[in-house]
């Protein structure tokens, strides 16, 4: 007879032994026909429901919580009841009790516990039954980071830095933080700039401030303001002169003369002849003010000499308090997932229809659903219907391809390619194309019949083996610089200054001449400027040494050689094409200045608005076709082609006046009846005038 507990119940190990004997004695067949019904054994472990977190959606970016998070646990055990719920913070940590009950134990038990442990924690949890049996450990990952990153400037020592230093900040996220520290904004003496190393030679001697807002991958942010003083010395000024000579800012002979005079002044000062040293520095200043010296170099040379004079005379101004001031700042917040409205919208009053195409066979961009929803919302506001073709957006997608024929596509005023990245970068089988051969033929026929095309961001990373598509989208993506996860919504984005090149186009008229943004910055297989009507370009000097891109601060990135179009439009092969190659970051689709660019592109390609999107390629195609078809006189066509070449060359070297002069000559030739038919001359005149108007807008 089994041994008994003090309550008279059989011990669990004895009961298990008894049941094993019973099961062994019963034939398997009898168990399968119900001759023996075995109930859930009394010692079976309880069953926990999957743990949940409150709030359910992380409060920070990259799935981090920026504050405590509540772990919710529950379990059931109908046989023995649930004695307690346990959890542990890490795979090897001891279990702690989240909630417990007293006998008789309830059939179900629930409770919660607050998790504050920083970093990424594998939280184990389990329930313990009334008989002491514990279920297998389950886990849930909890990511918590509540501490902002830290920024320091190691080149600044005791609040001072010399005039030949390069300041690069050190950024750390206190362990066990989320990391990925990103500098969102940066100011030098209250003037905002993109985050770059600071060459102190570009600053005057005296007091300055550098301010940055930095955040980590969780979105914790702080504002750091460093006050410091730039100093100089005879040796540093000598180094600056050498640098200016190397850079061509001053001539070699003048540089040698300045260095000789500086050496003289330094020797006199070291010998204690202060007044003579000051006179030598006056002579240095007079030489530095030579008209051949560039303004920035001249100001630095003169300023440093005056600083040295004041230092010798003991007349340097009193210095301000230096050091770092840290204040909390608002970091990036997560953006809730977007869900498009439907596969096809039919808004009351809509007068036309557009197609949003984002099916991918390669990299999948996060912005796709956000952009689809935005386009549908615009349709509702501005009177157009939207179809979506992207099986991964189901059910908000058509059930089959709409690229069946040019005639079928004709129901759309424009087709928006929302980053339909495929497998053709750089080369692959045709089956990897965003559009197969039949679909591409249908789309090509649609464009040639006057259709519209909007190429958004990753549209330039598709169909890499079809030259016609490359010319339509403008250029093919090759690569892009990397970034830091601390940006919040885009780990591959960095800061850049964007230049508005055509302020007259409806897509860019609302933008200032230069503006700052954060996005993923594509490099291309070639510079498309000669073929397209550039609307926006990147100022590469503002990110070539970006503090937010790998080791670029120390090893500048190789980009597009300084000229970097990033948005353009064109009349191409019978249709209208608009390309906006910014737009990787989901946050862009919630910024009105950016979305207005895209909306204007949709309106123009859909024929709902007019814009000057003239190109030299379009005009050259017109001339070639006219000469071949006999609508332009051969001699006139040759003369016009030569003038167009002159105008384009002048445009590319930024000589817009010369370009306009050549275009005026084309307009004059187009006015001659001997040059060709009225229709051909009229179209040539129209296009030349548009090109001339474009050149005027660039001055």
From TrEMBL:
Residues 353-605 form the ThuA-like domain. Keywords: Signal. Gene3D superfamilies: 3.40.50.880. The keyword Signal applies. Residues 1-44 form the signal peptide. The keyword Signal applies. Residues 235-308 form the FIMAH domain. This is ThuA-like domain-containing protein. It comes from Dactylosporangium maewongense. The lineage of its organism: Bacteria, Bacillati, Actinomycetota, Actinomycetes, Micromonosporales.
């Amino acid at each position: 007879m089994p041994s008994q507990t003090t309550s008279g119940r059989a011990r669990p190990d004895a009961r298990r032994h008894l049941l094993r004997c019973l099961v062994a004695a019963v034939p398997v067949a009898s168990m399968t026909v119900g001759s023996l019904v075995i109930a859930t054994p009394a010692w079976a472990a309880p069953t926990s429901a999957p743990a949940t977190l409150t709030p359910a959606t992380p409060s920070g970016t990259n799935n981090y919580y920026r504050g405590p998070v509540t772990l919710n646990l529950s379990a059931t055990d109908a046989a023995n009841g649930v004695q307690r719920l346990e959890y542990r913070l890490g795979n090897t940590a001891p279990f702690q009790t989240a909630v417990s009950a007293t006998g008789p134990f309830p059939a179900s038990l629930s409770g919660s516990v607050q998790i504050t442990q920083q970093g990424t924690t594998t939280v184990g949890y389990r329930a313990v039954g009334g008989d002491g049996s514990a279920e297998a450990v389950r886990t849930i990952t909890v990511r918590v980071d509540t501490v902002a990153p830290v920024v320091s400037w190691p080149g600044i020592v005791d609040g001072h830095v010399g005039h030949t230093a390069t300041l690069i900040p050190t950024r750390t996220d206190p362990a066990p933080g989320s990391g990925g520290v990103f500098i969102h904004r940066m100011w030098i003496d209250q003037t905002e700039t993109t985050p770059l190393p600071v060459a102190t030679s570009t600053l005057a001697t005296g007091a300055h401030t550098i301010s940055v807002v930095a955040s980590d991958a969780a979105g914790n942010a702080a504002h750091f303001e460093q006050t410091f003083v730039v100093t100089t010395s005879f040796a540093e000024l000598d180094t600056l002169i050498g640098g200016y000579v190397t850079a061509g800012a001053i001539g070699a002979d003048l540089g040698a003369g300045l260095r000789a005079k500086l050496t003289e002044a330094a020797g006199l000062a070291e010998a204690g002849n202060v007044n003579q040293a000051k006179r030598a520095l006056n002579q240095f200043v007079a030489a530095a003010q030579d008209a051949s010296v560039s303004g920035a170099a001249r100001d630095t040379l003169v300023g440093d000499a005056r600083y040295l004079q004041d230092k010798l005379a003991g007349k340097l101004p009193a210095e301000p308090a230096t050091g770092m001031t840290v204040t909390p700042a608002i970091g990036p917040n997560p953006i809730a997932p977007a869900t498009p409205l439907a596969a096809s919208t039919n808004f009351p009053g809509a007068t036309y229809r557009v197609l949003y195409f984002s099916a991918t066979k390669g990299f999948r961009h996060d912005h796709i659903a956000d952009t689809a929803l935005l386009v549908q919302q615009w349709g509702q506001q501005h009177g157009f219907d939207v179809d979506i073709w992207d099986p991964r957006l189901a059910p908000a997608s058509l059930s089959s391809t709409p690229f069946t024929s040019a005639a079928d596509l004709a129901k759309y005023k424009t087709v928006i390619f929302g980053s339909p990245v495929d497998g053709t970068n750089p080369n692959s089988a045709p089956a990897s194309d965003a559009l197969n051969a039949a679909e591409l033929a249908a789309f090509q026929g649609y464009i040639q019949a006057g259709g519209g095309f909007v190429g958004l961001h990753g549209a330039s990373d598709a169909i890499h083996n079809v030259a016609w598509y490359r010319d339509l989208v403008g250029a093919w993506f090759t690569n892009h610089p990397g970034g830091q996860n601390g940006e919040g919504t885009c780990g591959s984005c960095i800061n850049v200054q964007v230049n508005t090149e055509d302020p007259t186009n409806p897509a860019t008229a609302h933008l200032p001449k230069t503006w700052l943004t954060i996005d993923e910055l594509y490099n291309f297989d070639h510079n498309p400027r000669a073929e397209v009507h550039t609307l926006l370009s990147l100022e590469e000097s503002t990110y070539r040494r970006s503090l937010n891109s790998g080791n670029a601060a120390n090893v500048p990135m190789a980009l597009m050689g300084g000229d970097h179009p990033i948005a353009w439009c064109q009349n191409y092969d019978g249709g209208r094409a608009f390309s906006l190659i910014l737009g990787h970051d989901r946050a862009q689709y919630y910024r009105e200045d950016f979305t207005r660019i895209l909306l204007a592109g949709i309106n123009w390609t859909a024929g709902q608005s007019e814009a000057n999107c003239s190109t030299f390629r379009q005009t050259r195609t017109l001339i070639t076709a006219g000469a071949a078809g006999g609508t332009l006189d051969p001699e006139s066509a040759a003369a016009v082609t030569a003038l167009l070449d002159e105008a384009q060359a002048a445009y590319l070297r930024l000589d817009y006046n010369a370009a306009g002069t050549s275009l005026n000559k084309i307009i004059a030739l187009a006015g001659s009846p001997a040059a060709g038919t009225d229709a051909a001359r009229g179209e040539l005149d129209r296009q030349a005038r548009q090109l001339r108007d474009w050149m005027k807008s660039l001055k």
